[in-house]
Specification:
single chain, alpha/beta, 6 helices, globular
Length: 200
């Protein structure tokens, strides 16, 4: 995989303890897991985000994987685009090396999928990112949270905490999603999709 500069991996969420356990914050939780794996701390950055410079995954022969900036915007989900575009500029990252990690209603809970480009599926964070960048052509790590039960509104569902049953499974989901990010940046989208999407 070419490594012509760092990747930028952004986990979407809302700030503050009131939102910390929400399904909508699972993207930010994945970046927290990447920070834990790399022994790094996300620090306040002038791009209205918390960020850290790391190396993700392991390359051939056990060498550290590619350089990356991992980040979580410090504002609200629907304002994610400004911090993302500022981080891209500050760290001189081309949009081809941007990875956005986000919750996905259209995937069963516990499922992780990779793609590049496509629509936003009503996701306000993705809509803000696409609008600020002027393109939808960036990588996404889609972390499945399932559909709302019954007639519950989707907005209410994503802004609620994971259920007790889901919370028991959450560490495995975050682990899988962090693995998917590492695969993407080390081997590229197509090879990573084959590995991540393979039936278990």
């Amino acid at each position: 995989m070419t490594d012509n500069g760092p990747w930028l991996v952004v986990g979407l969420g809302n700030p503050g303890p009131a939102y910390a356990g929400n399904r909508h914050n699972v993207g930010a939780m994945v970046v927290d897991e990447l920070a834990r794996r790399t022994g790094s701390a996300l620090r306040s950055h002038k791009a209205r985000a918390h960020a850290a410079q790391v190396r993700l995954g392991t390359g051939a022969g056990g060498v550290p994987g590619p350089a990356a900036v991992i980040a979580v915007p410090s504002g609200y989900m629907n304002e994610s685009g400004g911090p993302v575009s500022s981080l891209l500029r500050f760290f001189s990252v081309p949009v081809e090396l941007l990875v956005v990690v986000h919750d996905e209603l259209d995937l069963d809970s516990g499922t992780v999928r990779l793609k590049r480009g496509g629509g936003e599926g009503g996701h306000n964070g993705l809509r803000s990112v696409s609008s600020s960048l002027g393109t939808r052509d960036y990588h996404r790590v889609r972390v499945g949270i399932g559909r709302p039960p019954g007639r519950m509104d989707a907005a209410d569902f994503v802004l609620r905490d994971f259920s007790p049953t889901e919370r028991r499974e959450l560490p495995f989901l975050l682990d899988d999603a962090a693995d998917a990010v590492e695969e993407l940046v080390t081997v590229g989208l197509l090879d990573a999709q084959q590995r991540v999407h393979a039936p278990r």
